[in-house]
Amino acid sequence: MATRLLHLIHTLMPRLALIPWLGLSDGAQVWQVMSRGLRHEMRAPPSAIITLAGLYWAGAMDGDLLARQVVMHAREALLCVDELGSVADEAVHRYRMVRTDLAELVAASIDEAWPAAKEAAIVLQGMECPCPVWVKADRRMLAALVGCMLKRAIALSQVPGKVRVGIGAGHAHYCVDLSFRMARPRAHDPLAPSSAAGLLARRVMKRHGGLLAVVGEGPDTAWRLVLPRARTGSKKAPEGAFLPSNR
Fold first, then answer.
1. Measured between alpha carbons, how far is residue 243 from residues 84, 108, 130, 165, 167 in Å?
2. Which option is the CATH number for 98-228: 3.30.565.10, 3.40.190.10, 1.10.940.10, 3.40.50.150?
3. Residue 201 and residue 205: Cα distance in Å, rounded?
4. Across residues 178-202, what is the average pLDDT?
5. 145: how many CB neighbours lie within 10 A of its CB?
6. Residues 143, 108: contact at Cβ < 8 Å?
7. What is the spatial distance between Cα 92 and Cα 114, in angstroms, rounded to a whole number?
8. Residue 117: which residues within 8 A CB-CB, separation 6 or more?
């Protein structure tokens, strides 16, 4: 984890120096989330681990339980590092919109998140996409967002459990749906505008002319990214451009 933190600091310094050159409200919002993340989200897991060590030394916790709790908090810290790094990257990223196969992008994100899901005893379940799914997108930032949301959904899911990923179609849009059952109620919305993941989602969706929606209440949660369709052209969807039916 120390290596990951050093990498975050090395990555953030040149990017944070550029953020004041953004629009006033735009830059201030990024600064606030970065400050909150470094002061609170990044401090909470190590603080919890120190508390757990005290319980273990006092004989109030056995070694196996301690190990499971330490791993859980360490994973949360690493996820926070990744989310803060993505926010910093997005703040200074130069968007380049190109015609993109959304199904192929999401399938690649599922493959990338598969090891984390397996380690957490979570099944990633993709739903087959029966038609071409073309959107105009910045591939790098949209892939970063889908990957970020997948990893956050895995971290929040009930164990053992599933994270279902699907692509829906409307008259003028496509949507990426992530649905799962939360392990426990959360005091704060994990995709609130004040969170790194929430800010990243809103900023990326704004640049794509889309939106983020949270569907459902209680433990059963669905996150939806809505993206406008790309203009129709003569290109065909690449062969095999669909989500895996079951991962």
1. 28, 9, 9, 8, 9
2. 3.30.565.10
3. 6
4. 86
5. 26
6. yes
7. 29
8. 123, 124, 154, 163, 247
Domain boundaries defined on the chain: 2-91, 98-228
Who has greater pLDDT, 25 or 163? 163
Distance CA 28, CA 147 (A): 25
pLDDT of 107-121, one tens digit each? 999 999 999 999 999
Structure confidence at residue 26 (pLDDT)? 66
Band (238; pLDDT cuts 50, 70, 90): very low
pLDDT in tens, 79-101: 988 999 899 899 889 999 999 99
DSSP codes, 131-160? S--EEEE-HHHHHHHHHHHHHHHHHHB-SS
Per the CB < 8 A criterion, the answer to whether 234 and 95 are in contact is no
> DSSP assignment of 73-131, as one string?
HHHHHHHHHHHHHHHHHHHT-----EEEEHHHHHHHHHHHHHHHHHHTTEEEEE----S
Q: What's residue 148's pLDDT?
A: 95
pTM of the model: 0.79
195: exposed, middle or buried (Cβ count in 10 Å: 0-12, 13-18, 19+): buried
Closest by Cα among 128, 139, 205 to 167: 128
Are the C-beta atoms of 201 and 242 separated by less than 8 Å? no
